[in-house]
Structures are given as C-alpha cells and as structure tokens.
Automatic annotation (TrEMBL):
<dbReference type="InterPro" id="IPR013655">
    <property type="entry name" value="PAS_fold_3"/>
</dbReference>
<keyword id="KW-0808">Transferase</keyword>
<dbReference type="InterPro" id="IPR035965">
    <property type="entry name" value="PAS-like_dom_sf"/>
</dbReference>
<dbReference type="GO" id="GO:0004673">
    <property type="term" value="F:protein histidine kinase activity"/>
</dbReference>
<protein>
    <recommendedName>
        <fullName>histidine kinase</fullName>
        <ecNumber>2.7.13.3</ecNumber>
    </recommendedName>
</protein>
<keyword id="KW-0418">Kinase</keyword>
<keyword id="KW-0597">Phosphoprotein</keyword>
<dbReference type="InterPro" id="IPR000014">
    <property type="entry name" value="PAS"/>
</dbReference>
<dbReference type="Pfam" id="PF08447">
    <property type="entry name" value="PAS_3"/>
</dbReference>
<dbReference type="InterPro" id="IPR052162">
    <property type="entry name" value="Sensor_kinase/Photoreceptor"/>
</dbReference>
<feature type="domain" description="PAS">
    <location>
        <begin position="64"/>
        <end position="136"/>
    </location>
</feature>
Length: 295
C-alpha cells in the first residue's frame, strides 16, 4: 500500500479514524468528506496565491533585470561574480557586450578571463584578487582587456569580497574614452611645460640682453663723461701761461724767481694738469679698445 499523505493522516486522526477502519455511520463519513473537501479548497487557494505571487515576482524580476541591463548598457558596464571554491565565474549580458564578446554558455573561470587580459596587467590583477579572497579586502583596479577584434580597451573593475564565503563580486566599466582624454591632457601638459621652458629661456636671454644693453649704455655714458672731462681741460690756462712766458722771455729767470705772477710754483702746477689729461685719455682709449698713442 502506498504511504498515506501526512495531511490526510492528520484529518483521519482528527476524526478518530484509521486507515484500516471505516466510519461507523454515514453522518461521520459525511462530515469527514466535507472537512477534506474544505481542506483541499483552502490548499488550492493557497497554491493559487503562491503561484500568483511567484508569477508577479517573476514578472517584476524580469522587469527589474531588464532595467538593470538597460542601465548597464547606458553606463557601459557589466556585472560579474566569481566563486573561488568551484573556480566558476558568472557574467551578465552587459559584461559580454562591453567586452565585445558573444554571450556563451561555456563555464567561465578565472583562467579564461586572464587569457583576455593584457600581459602587463595580469600580475596586478592576480594580486588584488588573491588579496580579496584571503583578506576579504575590496579592490579597485584598472586593466586592459582584449575584445573579439583582438583590440585592447581600458576597463575599471570594482570588486567586493564576501566576508562569509570564498567569493567576490563586482562590476567592470569601460573607461577607454576617459583614458584617451587623459592621454590628450598629458600630451597638452607636456607641451605646456616645454613651452614654459622655452619661454623661461627666452626670458633669461632677454634679461641677458637687457644687462648687456645696460653695460653698453654705461660704457656710452662713461665715454660721454670722459669726453666732457677732456673738454674741461684748461686750454685757456695753458695758453695764458705760454703768452706770459713769451712776454718775459728776455728776463725769464728774474720773472720766475721774483715776480709773484711768474714764480716757479705756478708753472710746476702744470704737472697735475698734464697727469689728469693723460689719465682721462687712457680711460677713453680703453673703452674704445684702441691703444693710446703717445704724443
């Protein structure tokens, strides 16, 4: 005999019946049948509500999933999950799409994804994944992944470690456009730095030329001053002395020794005047880079 359902066993027990014995009278049997019928109706109603709830929940889930996929498509991102105990990975449709790969039913794992990662980024990715699994530490990592056309594009993955299981989940975002802009900004910055250097060199050169100009101006001014100093030499005084000597040539010794105007001291005062003249002429010649010729 097939084992009796537990629900039916409870109903029989409630009325004091057994599986081997029939009700003693028709009234008891009628009550028993009515109670069983009511129970089935209630059970059907519960099952209907459950199925209805499942149907509504399923529709809502499909709607939410559709909106999630749409949001991922707009944001150029996809969801992934990795179970390290079974070495299996789950990708969303959005992830396949941004990677430029056709959706696949093939079981994915860490190794299959690493085959798509740029060789220079593999070691860094392995390091953050192992740390996330061992130390339950979240990570944020940028890497290059190869698409179906064998072209590498830049992506950013943000992952969270499950604190209770050997699992990590995260998202992968396409940041290729941002990387292109960063490269353009870097190139522009290098050009600005180079231009600034050139501008700095130009400023130094301008400063040097300005200083040279100041020096030349100083030389020019000095030459003018020397010229003025030369022009101030007392030619008239020399001429007057010559005239005085000519007038007293016949009594020159008497004139130079006894005459107050012709004393030898006044004539000797010519030596400083001649010395000043030679010094001024020497300075002028050194400025003009021409040797001083003796008279």
């Amino acid at each position: 005999m097939t084992e009796m359902h537990r629900l039916l066993q409870r109903q029989l027990k409630k009325f004091g019946f057994t599986a081997d014995g029939l009700p003693q009278n028709l009234e008891s049997w009628t009550q028993f049948i009515a109670h069983i019928n009511k129970t089935y109706y209630e059970n059907d109603q519960d099952r209907y509500l459950l199925e209805r709830s499942i149907d509504i929940s399923s529709k809502e889930m499909r709607d939410i999933n559709s909106k999630l996929e749409y949001a991922q498509d707009i944001a150029q991102m996809g969801y992934w999950h990795y179970d390290a105990d079974t070495d299996t990975a789950t990708w969303s449709k959005g992830l396949f799409k941004i990677l430029g790969l056709p959706p696949s039913n093939v079981v994915l794992n860490l190794s299959s994804f690493l085959e798509l990662v740029h060789p220079n980024d593999i070691a860094g990715l392995k390091k953050v994944v192992e740390k996330a699994l061992k130390e339950k530490e979240d990570y944020d990592y940028e890497l290059r992944v190869r698409n179906q056309d064998n072209d590498y594009k830049w992506f950013r993955t943000i992952a969270r470690a499950n604190p209770h299981k050997n699992e990590i989940s995260g998202v992968l975002m396409d940041i290729s456009k941002r990387k292109i802009i960063e490269e353009q900004v870097l190139e522009l910055n290098n050009k600005l730095v180079s231009t600034a250097r050139l501008a700095g060199m130009s400023e130094v050169a301008t400063s040097i030329l300005h200083n040279v100009g100041n020096i030349l101006n100083s030389v020019n001014v000095s030459a003018i001053i020397l010229k003025k100093n030369i022009s101030k030499i007392h030619y008239k005084k020399l001429s007057a002395i010559k005239t005085m000597l000519d007038e007293n040539i016949n009594q020159l010794s008497e004139y130079l020794l006894n005459n107050p105007k012709g004393k030898l001291g006044r004539v000797l005062n010519l030596k400083p005047l001649i010395k000043q003249f030679r010094h001024t002429a020497s300075r002028l010649c050194s400025l003009s880079k021409q040797p001083l010729t003796s008279a």
